[in-house]
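User: Show me a protein chain along with its predicted structure.
Assistant: Here is one chain, sequence first, then structure tokens.
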Amino acid sequence: MVNPALVDPDTVRATAAEAWIRAQPLLRTYRRLYAQALDDADPSYLGGFGVFRHHPRPPTPADTPTGAPTDTPTGAPTGTPVVGTEAAAAVGSEAGDTPYSRAWLDLRAEPWVVSVPAEDRYYVLPLQELDGVYAGFIGSRTTGPEAGDHLVAGPDWKGEPPPGIRSVTRTATRLVGIPGRTRLTGDTSVEAAELAAVQERYRLRPLHEYAGTPAPDPAPEPVWPVWREEIPDGVEFLSLLDFLLGFFPPAGPVPLPPAETDLRGRLADLGVDGRGEFEPAALPLEARAEIERGIADGRARLRGALAGLRDRCGLSGTREQIGGDFLRQAVSALVDLDGLPTEEVWYDSWQADSAGHRPPNAADRDHVIRFAPDALPPARFSWSATLYELSGELHRLVDNTLDRYSIGDHTPGLVRDPDGGLTLHIRHKRPADAGHSANWLPAPDGPFTVVLRLYGPDRAVLDGSWRLPPLDPR
């Protein structure tokens, strides 16, 4: 309960602004968790906790486009780009060449074991905490192509891993999501079936089942708050934040940054302490009014950060990378909740051509992108260039006779230039030249953008010494 003596009206407004920003990734993650793990009537329901749901089919132009203003998150500025359906293509991290495998883990009673097969193709199973921060990664870059069993343990676990465990990831939150991706290496139905076979070999088991020991007592079932889109709009956001902080203890094996500890102390003075008992009606009227002003301040700060955003790449990361940068986490949650650190996946896009046309327009001219022989996309695992049609805030794949939506190292039959370089031909109509046609990336009869993704980018990409070649009109 709130102790009015502890509520300082002079600091409530600032605390509320910071708390509203801090809450955004937690609220956005809970919105997804509720749909995928709790609401069996939702189309995206996975089957509960500890169950993978795979999406082996890559997106097509028929799938819901992303960035739709009608799907703007509550409390965000109109036009904020967000992820649409599970199968939708996106300008950020969600690419058609890495279909998803999704799961949620409840780590309160015991750890879980994630088992993966031996696999040469690129894959990653990120372990995403309730505030969108990554606790660790199982996959090609971090744990390698070998088969293995990997332990994921929450903040309360004090045991020792059993024999056979290849890695242990400790999490700061008791609930963890896995937005996994697996590389699709071709466009045929045979390749899609092979990808599905790989996904089906990802396995989740509670520790007792893996170790052959008695099951622990189950954790008590919470009264899960029903998600409502208006929650972030008012003081009620603190009630849901109070509930979610119960899964995010302030003390554990993963140290929290000083900014988090400081904010938790000020929130506790308001009665938001992780016990899930916060009652807005118990606040003094003056404090409630200051909280509402603080929410408006927080929304204005977030709107400004989104308006000034020039590069989505690198917003996400581990707790060591992000620290107590709450505004960065909020922007990341609204723009690209599944975004990965740049060392995992790097992406950039051509928003204009070299003649200054912004955006480039295939109705007016053809375009080419040429990678010199010593400047091919430097990726440890793979790369792809995906073209999107632009229509206001919408980004959608382009319907075409080849059913080709991206070009990359997976594309069969690409024709190299005489010097060993590679030229991509971006145009609305299929080129007559056979070599150009082999390297054709179909464009709409209108504006477009091209997004380049590098899986396991080379150091030259991360330090900025390798840059995108120009998009040249012809």
